[in-house]
Each structure stands twice: as C-alpha cells, then as structure tokens.
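Note to self: keep these together.
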Amino acid sequence: MSLEFFVSAFVSLFVVVDPFGTAAVFAVLAQGMDRNRQRRVAVKAMLIALGILLTFSLTGRALLEYMHISLDAFRVAGGLLLFITAFRMIMGFHDPDQLNSEKTAYKDRSDIAVFPLAIPMLAGPGVMTAVIMFSTAAQDVASHVQVTVAIVLVQIVGLFSLLGAARLSRFFGTTGNSIIARIMGILLAAMAVQFMADGITELFRLRDFPSPVPDIMQG
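Structure:
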C-alpha cells in the first residue's frame, strides 16, 4: 500500500469525526466545569473512542467473514451510512445551539465523556464503518499499520480540539463552526458516494455473470 492509502484513511476518518465540530459541542456541554475536569473528560472520551476504533480495526475482517458479508456489499452499506452522517452534518445536526433543546438526549450530562463525546461523536457508527472498510481493504502489515496510525492521529487531533474547545469556539465563532461542519459534510458525502459506486461496480461486474455464449462456440 502506498502513502495514498494512509492519506485516504486519515482524511476520511478526520472528516467523519469532525474534531472541530465535536469541540464546539464540548464547549457547550462543559460550561461550568473547571479546567481540570474538562481535561479529564476530554482524555477519557479520547481513550474510550480509541479503544473502540482499534477493536473494530482488529476484528472488522473476521466479523465480516463470520457474517458472510463481502467487502463490496459492506462498501455499499457503509457508504450509505456515511452519506446519512454527511447529510446530518450538512443540515446542522451537530450545531451547538441544538444542545439547548429540552428534547435532545445531550441534556443528560452524567458522563459526557462516554455520551455524546466518545459515542457517537469521536467513535460513532460512521467512524466505525470507515474503520472496518479501511481495515478490510488493507492487504498487508504495512497497510494495517497505516490504518492504525491514521486512527490514532485523528483521535489525538480530536483530543487537542477538545482541550482547546473554548478557544476554538471563540476563534471560529458560531458562523465559522457552522461553515466548517457543512464543508466537511459535503466532503464526506462525496466520499460516501465513491464508496457506494466502487462497491456497486464490483458487485455487478459483467465478468461475474455467466457468458450467454456456450464455451464450445468461443474461440
């Protein structure tokens, strides 16, 4: 695998995780916390998310084989899930203002490191899907290492974003955070469509269908 594989994995995971959008949400949830507690919550959320994603990276291929699911079928399903995630990002699902709604599940702040920071923001269904897709696409040890490094780096970026959540939120402002979330959503949507297109192409390649011409008449 070339460096292109690592870059693709890193960019895809970075876009799905959306560290800056997560930091904006954390800035709202962490209001009233002292700096030390904010740091503990951020580190805990990152470690939980990292453990989940590394587990999916190691067991993804075995899981698909056990369930008799082909990688191409998973690409189509995963691409659809990523597209839904992208659509919600574009439509403002992660906007911090929505956290003020009395109906949102995020109002429960008993352990925000687990929910919503670790799950579903840093290691949500979309991220898990992307991790499994890249880990199953890895053909050798070097490419598996690339996927692991990409996972770790994205989570480190996420951690630093959480630690600097208040400063990032003030720097970008409400409008800036909204623009970033939507740009990343558009990029993720394009990646999701590409995933689905690749999967559908492989599933329905003409070479997979029997030839209508009898073998005796060929050649």
